[in-house]
Write a structure and sequence with these properties.
It is built from 12 helices and 9 strands. The protein is α/β, with parallel strands linked by helices. The protein folds into 2 domains: 31 residues, no CATH class; 212 residues, Spore Coat Polysaccharide Biosynthesis Protein SpsA, Chain A.
Length: 267
């Protein structure tokens, strides 16, 4: 007799079904509470080593997780006790420098010119959070179920979305300066999940000295780009090209970002 049939017959007994549903509801409530309350969760003081950190090529790769003040409390905590434990090298970028549950969060916008940070309308949220912290954010600005009910083209009028487009190139530049010797640079968002072993196996089959920039392709106008939300990877050679170009053409990148709505396309 299959397990599914045995389960169906067992559920003919009302008391058994009620107990099963009861435990399911408790578990679901706990899952919701853990995923949405950032300051109530405390990371274990000692996290045992996990085998996924020792996979071939893991030490040649840095994973960069990009998030923002409006979603960090909702989406980052689960990574602290799961995915980030697998990465020997990683950085977490947001639009505000802080320590979040023991993790140092890097301000991806730190290298953007002072003029833009202080006066550009896209940086209104950045200025507010930098001055008063996340407590200044309104409920409508925070990540959650309602904010996920959007068209796939994104929330182009959302303050966090407007700010996000400015992060891409400065974030890659900062990452390269922090980890100049990595062969591969993998960029994800806080709601992305990497099949770590498969990713490393694939990257290990490529030559990091060649220009590789790969991800889930999408067209923005006539430009085919790697979708930032799905995650993308860049080889060392390609990252060096980005950094060198950005260093020599910062004003050009600023002007292009100002006119566009998608940081993926700017990159």
């Amino acid at each position: 007799m299959s397990k599914s049939i045995r389960w169906q017959r067992r559920c003919l007994l009302p008391s058994t079904c009620i107990v099963a549903v009861f435990f399911f509801l408790i578990f679901a409530q706990d899952e919701e509470r853990v995923s949405r309350d950032d300051y109530r969760i405390s990371r274990p003081r000692e996290i045992p080593e996990v085998s996924c950190r020792d996979l071939p090529s893991a030490n040649d790769t840095v994973v960069v997780l990009r998030t923002g003040s409006t979603e960090i409390a909702d989406k980052l905590p689960v990574h602290l006790s799961t995915t980030l434990r697998c990465y020997p090298n990683y950085l977490i970028f947001s639009d505000h420098k802080k320590t979040f549950q023991g993790e140092e969060i890097v301000d991806a916008l730190d290298s953007v010119s002072a003029e833009v940070q202080q006066h550009h309308p896209d940086f209104e949220l950045h200025r507010r959070v930098k001055h008063s912290g996340r407590s200044t954010l309104q409920a409508s600005e925070l990540s959650g179920i309602d904010s996920e009910r959007i068209e796939w083209t994104g929330k182009v009028e959302d303050p966090g979305w407007k700010l996000d487009k400015w992060k891409f190139v400065p974030m890659i530049t900062r990452t390269y300066h922090e980890y100049p010797d990595m062969k591969w640079y993998v960029f994800v968002e806080a709601d992305s999940y990497i099949f770590w072993r498969s990713t490393l196996q694939y990257l290990n089959s490529l030559d990091h000295t060649r220009h590789h920039y790969s991800g889930s392709g999408m067209y923005i106008g006539d430009d085919l780009v790697a979708h930032g939300g799905s995650g993308f990877f860049v080889s060392q050679a390609a990252v060096q090209t980005v950094v060198n170009f950005y260093t020599a053409h910062q004003q050009e990148i600023k002007d292009a970002t100002d006119k566009h709505w998608a940081g993926d396309c700017i990159l």
